[in-house]
Amino acid sequence: MTKLYHYPLDPFCRRIRLSAGEYKQELDLIEEKPWQARAEFLQLNPVGAVPVLISDEDVVAAGTEAVAGFIEDNRPEGCPSQVGANDKERAEVRRLTAWFDTKFHHEVSAPLLIEKVIRRFVPPEAGGGAPNMAVVRQALDTVRPHLEYIGALTEDHNWLAGDEISIADFAAAAHLSVIDYLGDVPWSENEKAKAWYQRIKSRPTFRTLLSDKVTGMPASRIYADLDF
Amino acid sequence: MTKLYHYPLDPFCRRIRLSAGEYKQELDLIEEKPWQARAEFLQLNPVGAVPVLISDEDVVAAGTEAVAGFIEDNRPEGCPSQVGANDKERAEVRRLTAWFDTKFHHEVSAPLLIEKVIRRFVPPEAGGGAPNMAVVRQALDTVRPHLEYIGALTEDHNWLAGDEISIADFAAAAHLSVIDYLGDVPWSENEKAKAWYQRIKSRPTFRTLLSDKVTGMPASRIYADLDF
């Protein structure tokens, strides 16, 4: 079976897991803590980041772009592309995917993941320790405008880029699900965004994310609740 | 004709111009200074970044992922893909493209471009002013290991990901060409990397980059020289 080296709370790995799940591609998940910089893992991906995929034919796809590309290139025949059906749709899907994988990640999910999770696990000399609360507060303040954007995008259609679910939804939901695990999404602030997240959270492929557990860090009360 | 909003020294725009040129897709280049945050441009791309492409059919592709995807999706029929011919090649091309667009950009081309170019043009209250020389020095020190990596990758084949030129070469050359304009690439340090850059610099599509000019900032002496 195709192997995926992943870290449960890594948003990029989550995006890949959703994408593969919707294409009915099974993945054998192997947990990797990228900050440990294991020598064998650095052989697979010299930048030391998850996700990394190894196919049955021993193709190594290292990093989000390579893994996402592999999943898309190997989608089941006849299955509609998760990137969109024509130039206009594909441009919008790719724009929004980059919005969440770059802008949202930089402003919200990366700082929260680093401050609240990773700094617990790395030694002090590598930057470990208590979270920097100024960084945490700034990231939390930035969640709201992103929820408003999701709300505006889903005003007239079910999914972020249009009537069909796409990698833009998987990227957005992946990043939000990480901070939802930490209990940091103010869902009551935007009904439309909450309704969109309820739709994607109810899909069978999402269940794998809802059962993720990080040792010593229980998920927020509503994390696995479909009626939050 | 397809329009491309670009900034001449933006590495992502340069990657797109090389890619489109190699596919013989003509682009009508429109210069945009993204730090000016023009209202009409923000309508096209809410994150305010170049490149943005507008097709003859009025498809707006905003951001590198959307534009690169559009160029690839619309390549001339029968033309070999610049992403590679099979899963193994495509995984390597995508890994290396991300290496230069993410790691090299973060460590080298973004800090040098910001400190040496953009800070000249923005007002002091928006971060303009003299370059921060500590940042510049650190970025310059990091060029060398990247040249070594290029040298190692081209030890046994002509192009970064194998025997065929790919978007990985366009990405790497685009980022390096920006700092070469500034005169900051120590080419004599790695003969293999220099030979690879000579190969790509000699291609007809590269000429458009070599004639780029930034007002008040002449290119380095060797920038347009094919025998540097």
Q: What's the N-to-C terminus distance of chain A?
A: 35 Å
Radius of gyration of chain A (Å): 17 Å
User: How much helix, percentage-wise, in residues of chain A?
Assistant: 40-55%
Average pLDDT of chain A: 96
- Could you give a short account of the major beta sheet of chain A? 4 strands, mixed
User: Structural class from helices and strands of chain A?
Assistant: alpha+beta
Order of helices and strands of chain A: EHEHEEHHHHHH
State the shape of chain A. Answer: globular
Low-confidence stretches of chain A: none
Largest sheet strand order of chain A: 2-1-3-4
- The helix tally of chain A amounts to 8
Kindly report the oligomeric state of this protein. Answer: homodimer
Layout of helices and strands, plus pairs?
The structure is a homodimer of 228-residue chains.
Chain A: E1 3-6, H1 11-22, E2 28-31, H2 39-44, E3 52-54, E4 60-62, H3 64-73, H4 87-121, H5 133-153, H6 167-181, H7 191-201, H8 207-210
Parallel strand pairs in A: 1-2
Antiparallel strand pairs in A: 1-3, 3-4
Helix pairs in contact in A: 1-3, 1-6, 4-5, 4-6, 5-7
What does this structure look like?
Two copies of one chain form a homodimer. The first copy, chain A, is α+β, with helices and mostly antiparallel strands and 228 residues long. Helix content of chain A is 50%, strand content 6%. Chain A has a four-stranded mixed sheet with strand order 2-1-3-4. In chain A, strand 3 and strand 4 (60-62) form a beta hairpin. The A-B interface holds A 45, 47, 55, 57, 59-66, 69-70, 73-74, 83, 87-88, 90-92, 94-95, 97-99, 103 and B 45, 47, 55, 57, 59-66, 69-70, 73-74, 83, 87-88, 90-92, 94-95, 97-99, 103.
